[in-house]
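Take one record.
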Amino acid sequence: MKPPYQSNFRGWVFRVTPPEDLKSDPFPIPPLRIRATGDTSELELAKTMDRLREAILKEYEGLQFSELKSYRWFEESYHGIQTITDVFGETRDTVYFRTDTFELSESGEDFAIVYGPIHSLTGKSIYSSFILYTGDIVKDLLPLQSRIMLGFLSVNSQMSEESKLGLKGSAKRFLPDDPNADLFYVWKIAKANPDNEDYCAVVPESNYERITYNELFVAFRAYIDPKLAVSAAYEEILMDKVIYFSQEK
């Protein structure tokens, strides 16, 4: 609803005051489970990922492209508390990576290619996924800086190869003769899929005025290193990446 929200339901807020001062009794700070194992075997696949990048660029040769930066999204909770940084409920069961933002036209002529290792197959997680987010500014609240942070589309490592809806099997068309191709994925993100391509995620039309799907970014998660009770260390993960393609000269 738009302001002044005349038709919104209004609830009640009660302030409850104890009859006497209560003594402070904070929970003790729990010890952290160690993330690292020292296993850097996934990083050894960097050469395969480089070949995959070259194959993607060759497939879409002639189009303008830019490679979006992937980076760590959230700080650790204890560090966030000390620096007064919002970590959005970060937990240690997964790593959090994200990209810079990008926009897609309605025609589908421009698109993004998401690619990277399937961390559950390399042994660094039990489940991994990429998630498409919109970060639209809520314009009717300006000049306040308020954004919608909505993850609305996800592709994960648990979907079968036969379904062509998951990560598995999607990189073979780019590296048909590479034995490591099964450990990687390649997906297209666009606002249209006129040729009905496999492994293509279509951004839906919005049914809400505030959600425009204009300012997009991709986030990546890899849950629980099977050797640990938490996720792998950031230093032991090969980061997923995104390349944006367009017709513009």
Q: What stands out?
A: The beta strands are 64-68, 70-72, 94-99, 111-117, 127-134, 150-156, 184-190, 200-202, 216-223, 241-246. The helical segments are 46-59, 77-83, 119-122.
